[in-house]
Amino acid sequence: MGVESTTNDIVKMPNNGHKSELKNQKKKKLLLPSTTSGELTRTWKIEDSEDLYRIEGWGKPYFSINAAGHVTVSPKGDRGGSLDLFELVKALKLRNLGLPLLIRFSDILEDRIERLNACFAKAIARYNYPGVYRGVFPVKCNQERHLIEDLVRFGKPHQFGLEAGSKPELMIALALLDTPGAFLICNGYKDRGYIETAMLAQRLGQTPIIVLEQIEEVDLVIAANRQLGIKPIVGVRAKLSTQGMGRWGTSTGDRAKFGLTIPEITEAVKKLEQAELLDSLQLLHFHIGSQISAINVIKDAIQEASRIYVELAMLGADMKYLDVGGGLGVDYDGSQTNFYASKNYNMQNYANDIVAELKDTCAEHQIPVPTLVSESGRAIASHQSVLIFDVLSTSEIPLDPPEPPKEGESPIINYLWETYQSINQENFQEFYHDAAQFKEEAISRFNLGILRLKERAKAERLYWACCKKVLDVTRQQEYVPDELEDLEKIMASIYYINLSVFQSAPDCWAINQLFPIMPIHRLDQEPTERGILADLTCDSDGKIDNFIDLRDVKSVLELHKFSHQEPYYLGMFLNGAYQEIMGNLHNLFGDTNAVHIQLTPKGYQIEHVVKGDTMGEVVKYVQYDSEDMVEKIRQRCEKALEENQITLGESQLLLQTYEQSFMRYTYLNS
């Protein structure tokens, strides 16, 4: 019985695994209408924004744009009900919840769990699979208490369990998982205490399965069994030879960090058999990496794992469960490709391939099929949270119309002016190089004392005017010469955002992860600016300059003109997995405010509010005492008063401001 092909399993690009390689093919550019005159060339529609930001590709069925040009959220997916995200943010700000603000939609979490279970149920029915599916959520993906509580609550109808990868996560799972029949998968490195705690949990009616990651853990399990007299449920994690792809491709193979090689698995079987615990071995687990973008990798892995499962059963192990680990991908850029930030399959394809392959292999050897387990974390948690932040200011290249040269000015000014006037669609490449050469000569003459400061300033303004004119021409071209590809980024504005990348989107900095980012309002207007995002930290890496695109990663984001007279809100989407717990305190910017929203017949209700870190809390993380710090400032004020360096009113104002700051949000007021 083979898996039938589906119309959803579409690859829109060459299977090279990396879209940036298409640069060498001089790809056609996808561009906005030209706005060189400052006026829109045509009426901008919300459909244009949908195409530009690819919201249907990555956001369906949860995110869309309404007629007002605002992003809307449908937390229940196709089942109805939606919220205007812009209006929601305004209402939350009136409740004294400042930006940046993380909004979690509990209904999306519930919908993701239901969709995953529905896909496996459909696959089981389609292939007449005589077994069941029992999912677990890896706690490491997002350990926040309210989220785990919601997940356990929503998972009860499906006997959805939890996976722990450390002793603290095991403590969380034991306390919160109260679903009868749900699995508690115990992964990660283990000591005697970890194993004994898991085994004793059986007495509470829980179903902990201890997955052996290291050969030494076999002896620990045997020793705990002899001391406690409790028969454990044990699994082995196999290091498959199937090679993954992308950033986590090395999660497989003989040199993978976790798991047992085939010789080690046979050794573990021998040890368990000698200890009369072979019937405790009931689960096979594998993991081929997070964010698997290509379905063929999953197909190869499940084929190999199915064979190992059957062989373990034939060796006498009481095999009952197959845990396919994580890896179910998220389409961050909406391209439906095997690019690392996308996937060329859907959730139903994933379930179909696993179910069909297992049934075929078990039927071939007349082995009872296992209960299927998956540890899908990213695919469940990513969509449920949206990070909202505002723009504080911008830095732009001066693009005012240049003035013609005056009599007596340097010849360089005349050369640049003539270059600027002469640029057209035929000579733009040549004259761009001329302008760059003249700029360098102007700098050289300035350094030699030949050119005055005002003349250098005029030369640079003319150079940027030339670049703008060249850029306007390239935006109308079918192809762009290689040396001009970076011009868009060079000319981009810097939008300063009220956010710490290191705290709220660490994967952007650490591994160049792509998350969809877009304005949440003004989407009925054409975004005439191109920009990169710079955060609040004093770090040159605190920026975002890679954005999703259909054919490649964009170096700039299309944005609207910023004005201090009205707020400009941006949203980062699909970042509900890993980002919160991995965030760090660079420059002591702490956790953001977070709010849990649930849809109601009358609109929505706020389930929980989790206030972000205050300045007092973050300094405490690095071993400072705020009261002691206030006292030191008080003493300095007294000394300054004695020396007439400060007035009494000034000292009291300083003390009051200093003390109150410890109770305030670490981010800027907006």
Describe the structure.
Helix content is 38%, strand content 14%. It has 670 residues and is of the alpha/beta class. The longest helix has 22 residues, at 453-474. The chain is globular, with a radius of gyration of 30 Å. The chain starts with 45 loop residues before the first helix and ends in a 9-residue tail after the last helix. Mean pLDDT is 92; it is low at 1-40.
Task: Record the SSE blueprint.
Elements: H1 46-53, H2 55-59, E1 63-65, E2 71-73, E3 83-84, H3 85-94, E4 101-105, H4 106-126, E5 136-138, H5 145-155, E6 161-164, H6 167-176, E7 183-186, H7 192-200, E8 207-212, H8 216-228, E9 233-237, H9 262-274, E10 281-285, H10 295-314, E11 321-323, H11 347-365, E12 371-373, H12 378-381, E13 385-395, H13 411-422, H14 428-447, H15 453-474, H16 487-490, E14 493-497, H17 501-504, H18 506-510, E15 517-519, E16 529-534, E17 543-544, E18 557-559, E19 569-573, H19 579-582, E20 593-600, E21 603-610, H20 615-621, H21 626-642, H22 648-661
Parallel strand pairs: 4-20, 5-6, 6-7, 7-8, 8-9, 9-10, 10-11, 11-12, 14-16
Antiparallel strand pairs: 1-2, 2-3, 4-13, 13-14, 13-19, 15-19, 16-17, 16-18, 20-21
- Gross geometry: globular
Which bin fits the share of residues in helices?
Answer: 25-40%
Largest beta-sheet details: 10 strands, mixed
Oligomeric state of shown chains = single chain
β-strand number: 21
Give the gist of this structure.
The chain contains 22 helices and 21 strands. With 670 residues, it is α/β, with parallel strands linked by helices.
